[in-house]
Amino acid sequence: MANEIIIATDANQKLATRPTSPETRLANPVPGILFLATAGLGWAVFGSTIGTVAGALGFGGSIVLGSILASSIRMAAQWEKGIVFRFGKFVATKGPGVFFLVPFADTVRMVDTRIRTIEIPHRQAITKDNVPVRLDGVIFMRVDDPSAALIRVQNYTQAVLEYAQTALRDIVGGMTLDEILADRELLGQRVEAMVEHEIDGWGLEVAAIRIQDIELPEDLKRVMARQASAEREKRATITKAEGDREAAENLALAAQKMATSPGALQLRTLQTLDSLGTSPSNTIVLAVPVELSNALKAVPELADALKPLPNKNES
Question: With contact defined as beta carbons under 8 Å apart, do 71 and 31 qualify?
Answer without folding.
Answer: yes
